[in-house]
Design brief:
Blueprint (H helix, E strand, L loop, with lengths): L2 H6 L8 H8 L18 E2 H10 L15 E4 L7 E2 L3 E2 L9 E2 L3 E4 L5 E3 L18 E5 L11 E4 L3 E3 L4 E4 L15 E2 L10 E3 L7 H9 L4 E5 L3 E7 L3 E2 L9 E2 L2 H11 L3 E8 L3 H10 L4 E5 L10 H8 L2 E5 L1 E4 L5 E6 L2 E6 L3 H19 L8 E4 L11 E9 L2 E4 L9 H4 L3 E5 L9 E6 L1 H5 L1 H4 L2
Parallel strand pairs: 1-21, 7-8, 15-18, 15-19, 16-17, 19-23, 21-25
Antiparallel strand pairs: 2-14, 3-14, 4-13, 5-12, 6-8, 6-9, 7-11, 10-11, 20-22, 22-23, 24-28, 25-26, 25-27, 27-28
The chain binds ligand LQZAQKY5 and molybdate ion (MOO).
Catalytic activity: adenylyl-molybdopterin + molybdate = Mo-molybdopterin + AMP + H(+)
EC number: 2.10.1.1
Family: Belongs to the MoeA family.
């Protein structure tokens, strides 16, 4: 690795002095050589995720923890979860239907052909008599007493206008009873359950619901999220200057939250005072408040004091993960949670996936992604106590750890397909690592951001 690359691999996970000493000294308060975690109140990474996932079940959400279901027009329901079974409101097809363009025929041929044909979307036709045929389009209602549909490529009319079966049918020259007729109720009967509660609403679910007679779906709504971006040093546009830097999280968080199932109801810059933050949180009626910055112990880190003043219950106060260890989760009201993301941008992404993702998933009743692992192409340096989340690119069946993975850097994650979960102590080349997918790599950018 070049010196430049080594610098790019900087991780704020670089040990602080206290942590480094803890590795070489005996545990000061104990009798063994096992180092004690310097942030003993911090929650282990898997536990933090579990707490975030179950947090809404202890609020007003009740046992399931999800938001109260509502009737949602089909056009707005993509990505939601069904809160009532999708039960057919009609038989499908709702009438006997022609499966092909051709002729509806009655009895054995040859047939005399009626002058007027039958198109899709037209009401009942007069019954056919034995030996009669009528031109019919795919999807058109079958006239009563039709015995089969003869495909247009399997029939020809002679010079007297009589219809014959050509040799092309199998067996040749025959049309079997019921052929190319979709009988009413073939797919379902009115009242049949088509999809159970908990089904994610995908494009085919929308189509199925419309076909089955629905205009709205009973679904769990998207959790409403207010984003408060803290930091008087942040610029909304232009180049950094005079100690001011661009706000990277204002543009990053809203679409990512939407991809996690949220409706982003506000994105606001909040001044670096406890009062401003207190007012912003108490005025919010969102299901989830996400703050960025101000989680550590600096002179303008106001998240903890504001939460104390509100009387919020801290569910997670620091997590044993790098980057992002100062992240927090609080219950601000019975039906409102606050996720405090650290200000360093990759640390904020870590908090988003550790705390916001499971919290939003429960509120929206979305299914948990299937955990999966891949071998790491290169070894990854570990933190002595904490889990590391490291941006990786997926190349074939291996995960390639990316440089520029420090907490203040976005260059690695911007090129990544996933985050690898590296346990304390690190991972060797070829070792299997759990992967957290980024929503757009699995779902496609158009699907997940609508
Ligand atoms: N004494 C300690 N200092 C720090 C610790 C610690 O444990 N003890 N932890 C460090 C770690 S790790 C992180 S991460 C940060 C978390 O700090 P805060 O959440 O309080 O965030 P800020 O201090 O407000 O900002 C940190 C850093 O990030 C920049 N920032 C903030 N918001 C944005 C944004 N929207 N877009 C781009 N960059 C942003 C900010 O300018 C700072 O450079 O604390 C460490 N310190
Ligand atoms: O190292 Mo800190 O944990 O970036 O967030």
């Amino acid at each position: 690795m070049t010196a430049r690359a080594a610098r790019a691999d900087e991780n704020a996970d670089d040990l602080d002095v206290e942590e480094a000493l803890a590795l070489v000294k005996k545990n000061p308060g104990g009798t063994t050589d096992t180092p004690r975690h310097p942030h003993r109140d911090a929650t282990a990474w898997p536990d933090a995720r579990a707490i975030a996932e179950s947090a809404p079940r202890h609020g007003t959400g009740g046992r399931t923890g999800h938001l109260t279901p509502v009737a949602v027009p089909l056009a707005s329901a993509l990505g939601l979860t069904l809160a009532a079974p999708l039960t057919a409101l009609t038989d499908l097809p709702s009438f006997d239907t022609s499966a092909m363009d051709g002729w509806a025929v009655s009895g054995p041929g040859p047939w005399s052909v009626r002058d007027e044909g039958v198109l899709a979307g037209h009401a009942a036709h007069t019954p056919l008599t034995d030996g009669e045929a009528v031109r019919i389009a795919t999807g058109a209602r079958i006239p009563p007493d039709t015995t089969a549909v003869l495909r247009s490529e399997h029939g020809r009319t002679d010079d007297k206008g009589r219809l014959h079966v050509t040799a092309a049918t199998r067996p040749p020259h025959t049309v079997t009873h019921g052929q190319d007729i979709r009988p009413r109720g073939q797919e379902c009967r009115s009242g049949d359950q088509l999809l159970p509660v908990g089904t994610p609403v995908t494009p085919p679910v929308l189509g199925m619901a419309a076909a089955a007679g629905y205009d709205t779906l009973t679904a769990v709504p998207r959790p409403r999220v207010d984003v408060f971006v803290l930091g008087d040093e942040l610029l909304g546009e232009g180049l950094p200057h005079d100690g001011l830097i661009r706000d990277a999280l204002g543009p990053l968080l809203p679409p990512w939250l939407r991809a996690l199932g949220a409706e982003v109801t506000a994105v606001r810059r909040v001044g670096d005072t406890e009062q401003a933050l207190y007012e912003a949180i108490t005025a919010s009626d969102a299901d989830v408040v996400v703050t960025t910055g101000g989680t550590a112990a600096g002179p303008v880190d106001h998240v903890h004091p504001a939460l104390r003043r509100i009387g919020a219950e801290l569910l997670v106060d620091g997590v044993q993960v790098r980057p992002g260890h100062p992240m927090l989760l609080a219950r601000t009201k019975d039906d409102q949670h606050l996720v405090g993301l650290p200000g360093n941008p990759l640390a904020a992404v870590s908090g988003l996936l550790t705390l916001a993702e499971p919290l939003l998933r429960t509120l929206a009743a979305r299914p948990a992604p299937e955990p999966y692992t891949l071998p790491l192409r290169d070894g990854v340096q570990g933190h002595p106590y904490d889990t590391r989340l490291v941006p990786v690119a997926l190349r074939g069946d291996r995960a390639l750890p990316l440089l520029y993975n420090g907490p203040a850097m976005l260059r690695g994650i911007a090129a990544a397909d996933a985050l690898a979960v590296v346990p304390p102590g690190g991972a060797r080349p070829g070792e299997e690592a759990e992967l957290l997918d980024l929503p757009w790599t699995s779902g496609g950018i158009g699907v997940c951001f609508t």
